[in-house]
Design goal:
The protein has 17 helices and four strands. By secondary structure, the protein is mainly alpha-helical. The protein is globular. A hairpin with a 5-residue loop joins strand 3 and strand 4. This is MFS general substrate transporter. It comes from Macroventuria anomochaeta.
Length: 523
């Protein structure tokens, strides 16, 4: 029998850890606030749109390219160490950029500014992986819901800081950069002591954390592993170690909520059905490291990640330029302060859309899998469709008063994509090497984000004029960037195709597993 008095502190600790992970994630999405200060930064330092995009892309590269080494630290050492690295990197990255802005033109080279921007991305990646790993380990049977909260906070981060900056430092880009350097690092520092993996025993296992009567039979198990085992291989769990907690299509009576009480769950179960599920999933693969490269499922997810995230990154990094171009053409009397305020407004819209997308897709994907018995990929299909609609709107909206549609749909689609893909990765490859696996996948946005951002910059610069004071300006409205969105519209359509390919492949694998189970049973 499990001592019920001991389970309550465990649950409280797990809930507190999710809160801490969510707070840390709130400090990690500030790269997506780049458009809030990039145009003013470029104007003061007399940078072209392409140079501005290089700086923004460096932050994205830091965020995504550091995924594998940071993942190794998170998986093999401790999530807290990753959070500490993130804390220092955020401080060291943002403050020199603030100094460059204060110094004006020529005070720092574009290469050095890009380097510090890269460091901010590394800091965001490190702290965020720590948050996501902790949430994943502490709630193994509710991964979609547990990761939804830090993922949603990550999406809300840009809105959170731009809102505070708009109130505390209106029109003050230097003040915004100061706040980004100090507030983000301090928030991570304060949250680190509460970032706890429950009952983590460094050499053997994660223990059972039952929380109610059903949980005593069907508890939140993280299966016993050998800490000395290489994480760079594909291994098969023996049948006796696989329970329905490993089954991504487990019983619909398991709710998505992290706060379910005993009365929320039906204690009656179909024993035969449960036995069938255990048997059919008795050879679940735990795949990580370079073993991923031999799996078609990995390349499927990698291509999908690149197609969709690149689309979102281009708008996120350049919505400020969109605002500037449309208002310069639509109303030449619009002041710089008015345009700057509108830029903050659109960054906030993207951030809020991302927040709702991440939160709804994480919890919604659990509902789709557990209650409806369908694939999580359907959430990604929805995201791809929203992206396609968004890119079409971006090629048509000429009135800046309606640009909110582009910002809102972009944030929503981007949030849905990142809200569900971590759970898809865990379902497909297992939880043990999640951080490394996620690091491999996040190399995709490094490629697509670079290509789309630089293409946008080239298109924008080709329609810009250099004024006598050295500033660059485009007054052609939609024509300043329209061609870039035709490319991302095509990328979104291809994303839909890859999603449907993923669903077909998942169904094929399930059929093959069922047929294998039937053959073994007949034998």
């Amino acid at each position: 029998m499990v001592d019920l008095e001991k389970t309550t502190p465990h649950k409280k600790t797990r809930v507190v850890s999710v809160v801490a992970a969510t707070a840390i994630a709130l400090a990690c999405g500030t790269n997506y606030a780049y458009s809030a200060w990039a145009p003013q930064f470029a104007d003061k330092l007399q940078l072209s749109a392409t140079q501005s995009n290089v700086i923004g892309t460096a932050a994205n590269m830091g965020m995504y390219a550091s995924g594998i080494p940071i993942g190794l630290i998170t998986d093999k050492v401790n999530p807290r160490l990753s959070a500490i690295i993130g804390m220092f990197a955020l401080l060291v990255g943002y403050y020199p950029i603030k100094m460059a802005y204060d110094g004006g033109p020529g005070s720092m080279s574009v290469a050095m500014i890009s380097f510090y921007s890269f460091v901010t991305g590394v800091g965001s990646c490190a702290a965020f992986q720590a948050a996501l790993k902790t949430a994943t380990l502490n709630w193994p049977t509710h991964r979609g819901s547990a990761t939804a909260f830090p993922l949603a906070a990550f999406g809300l981060s840009a809105f959170f800081y731009t809102l505070i900056a708009g109130l505390a430092f209106p029109g003050n880009t230097s003040g915004l950069l100061t706040m980004l350097s100090l507030a983000t690092s301090l928030l991570v520092l304060i949250s680190i002591p509460f970032l706890i993996v429950v009952d983590h025993k460094s050499s053997t296992s994660y223990t059972v954390l039952p929380t109610n009567e059903r949980a005593r039979r069907n508890s939140n198990i993280l299966h016993r592993t050998n800490s000395n085992r290489s994480k760079y291989s594909a291994t098969v769990l023996p049948p006796q170690e696989v329970t329905d907690e490993d089954d991504p299509s487990r019983s619909s009576t398991e709710t998505s909520s992290l706060i379910s009480g005993p009365g929320d769950i039906d204690p009656e179960e179909d024993a035969a059905s449960r036995h069938s599920k255990k048997s059919s999933h008795s050879h679940c693969l735990d795949i990580t490291g370079f073993a991923l490269l031999y799996k078609p499922e990995f390349w499927q997810l990698w291509i999908l990640m690149g197609l969709l995230t690149g689309v979102g990154i281009m708008t996120i990094n350049n919505i400020g330029h969109n605002v500037q171009a449309l208002w310069n053409h639509f109303d030449k009397s619009a002041s710089k302060d008015f345009v700057a305020h509108r830029q903050l407004w659109h960054v906030s819209i993207i951030s809020l859309g991302s927040f709702f997308g991440r939160l709804s897709s994480g919890i919604g994907s659990d509902f789709i899998v557990k209650r409806l018995g369908h694939s999580r990929f359907w959430c990604v299909v929805i995201a791809a469709f929203i992206f396609a609609i968004d890119q079409f709107c971006a090629t048509r909206v000429e009135n800046p008063n309606y640009l909110w549609a582009v910002s809102g749909l972009c944030g929503l689609a981007y949030g849905v994509t990142f809200g569900v893909l971590p759970a898809v990765v865990v379902d497909t490859f297992g939880p043990d090497g999640f951080s490394v696996n996620w690091g491999f996948l996040t190399l995709a946005p490094v490629v697509s984000g670079n290509v789309y951002n630089l293409f946008y910059g080239a298109v924008y610069d080709s329609n810009s004029i250099v004024e006598p004071d050295g500033n660059r300006n485009c007054e052609e409205g939609l024509q300043c960037y329209q061609r870039a969105y035709y490319v991302t519209l095509l990328s979104s359509v291809l994303g839909i195709v890859v999603c449907l390919w993923g669903i077909h492949g998942e169904h094929a694998r399930k059929r093959a597993a069922l047929e294998e189970h039937e053959r073994h049973r007949d034998a």
